[in-house]
Structures are given as structure tokens and as C-alpha cells.
Specification:
Number of helices: 3
Order of helices and strands: HHHEE
Number of strands: 2
Helix content: 40-55%
CATH topology: Rossmann fold
Length: about 80
């Protein structure tokens, strides 16, 4: 597939989904709280994961992830669709 077609498909995808930007002060404040909490507990996670978790919490979203680090975040609604029940 050529780059022009891939870009076109990506643009179509972006028109169908809601994109959440990291320009929300509430998200940044929540990310700070998460970072401090996990650091105090001696269980830090990656900064990008903290921002993703904070975005999910502030927007009251369910985060679907197979990343076990996310389970350390208090108050997150987390689902792992790869877990075998």
C-alpha cells in the first residue's frame, strides 16, 4: 500500500473517532497526582502510561490494555481483553 493511500485511510479513521488531546489542565493535574502516588509507593510507571491513565480517569473512560503497570493506578476503569477467563 502506498503512503498516499495510507494517509487517506488514516484521515478517514480520524474522522470516525474522538481524539482526546493532552491540552486539558485536569488531565495534567490528575497525571501529577498519579505520578506522586506511585512514586511514594515505590511503584512508578512510564510517563506516557500515566498520561493515558489520567486521560481515561478524567474522561470517565474504560481503558483497554494488556499493560500490567496500569493496574497500579488507583481509580482507573481497566479491562484486559486478552485475559483468559
Amino acid at each position: 500500500m502506498n503512503a498516499t493511500r495510507k494517509l487517506s485511510q488514516f484521515n478517514e479513521f480520524c474522522q470516525k473517532v474522538t481524539i482526546l488531546f493532552l491540552d486539558n489542565l485536569e488531565v495534567i493535574e490528575k497525571a501529577t497526582e498519579i505520578h506522586i502516588d506511585l512514586r511514594r509507593k515505590g511503584r512508578p510507571i512510564q510517563d506516557a502510561d500515566i498520561l493515558i491513565a489520567a486521560t481515561a480517569i478524567i474522561h470517565n473512560l474504560t481503558l483497554v490494555s494488556n499493560d500490567s503497570d496500569m493496574s497500579r493506578v488507583e481509580g482507573i476503569n481497566l479491562e484486559n481483553w486478552l485475559e483468559i477467563e
